[in-house]
Amino acid sequence: MKKVLLFLIIVFCLTISACGKDSSNSTVPETTHIHDFGEWSVTKKATCSAEGAKERTCACGEKETKTIPATGKHDYVGKVTKEATVTEEGVKTYTCSVCGDQYEEAIEKVPGNWEIGYYVDELGNKTSDAYVIGSFNGKFCNSATSFSDLTAFVYLDKSSTTTMFRLLEYGSYRASALSSDHIEINLEKEDGSTEIIKLKYSSSQGTFYSDDNKLKSLILNNASLTCVIMIFPKYGSSYDAYAFNIDNAGLKELYNQT
Ligand SMILES: [Zn+2]
Ligand SMILES: [Zn+2]
């Protein structure tokens, strides 16, 4: 009986204490605060090479920050750092105005008046025998016309002392001469000094030429020359004149390649 009573008392007490606990802890359990961040705002702008940063803030004051990756997009500004010439390529340097990153681009050689030509064999096939040919614009006068357009071609061959000219009136029609004509070329150098050299006419080739090595070396050794080819008929006072300037930029380099 005593044991049963004791048991009941214990159960009673436990019940009381449980109730007590319940009543002392009666507030609603706290719900977790969920941050409500606003829009991101950039605090440091990313550049081509540097990371940026952005942040957003909750009403409670909590901040979240994130890095913005570098864009990798450089802001290049191009500048010619070496002018191209007839003989050498130029260089254009691009520099990023933000980080200074650089790269270079080649500028093509300036086309010159001279180029390498190759002889053809009797079948019309190109051989390895080369010469240099220059083409120049000029003017010509004769009894029928004054200051009309002229295209003059100049041929130099390393294996010969000959200098050859082909003169195309209006860019198309070969100038010619009679075997009895007196033909000469007047050359004026940059320093103003002049030379006169006699020329011959080849009716088979339609070219004017000189075998005198002096003419060839004058062309090779002057940066530019003013040339006037004069054709004087044996009889009469009229004459034909073909005037053109030879610009020899790049000539020697090409000549040495043949
Ligand atoms: Zn918050
Ligand atoms: Zn950059």
Summarize the structure.
The protein has helices at 2-24, 213-220, 251-257; strands at residues 41-44, 52-57, 63-68, 76-82, 90-96, 102-107, 114-120, 126-141, 148-156, 163-169, 173-174, 182-188, 194-202, 207-210, 224-232, 240-247.
In terms of structural class, how would the helical and strand content be classed? mainly beta
- What overall geometry do the principal axes of the alpha carbons give? rod-shaped
Strand percentage lies at: 35-45%
- What is the helix fraction of residues, given as a range? 10-25%
Q: What profile does the largest beta sheet have?
A: 8 strands, antiparallel, barrel
Bound compounds, please?
A: zinc ion
Low-confidence stretches: 8-24
Sketch the topology as an H/E string, one letter per element. HEEEEEEEEEEEEEEHEEH
Tally of individual domains:
3
Q: State the helix count.
A: 3
Q: Could you give the order of strands across the largest sheet?
A: 8-9-10-14-13-12-15-16
In round numbers, the mean pLDDT is: 89
Calculate the terminal CA-CA distance, rounded to whole Å.
134 Å
Q: Provide the gyration radius in Å.
A: 47 Å
| Total beta strands | 16
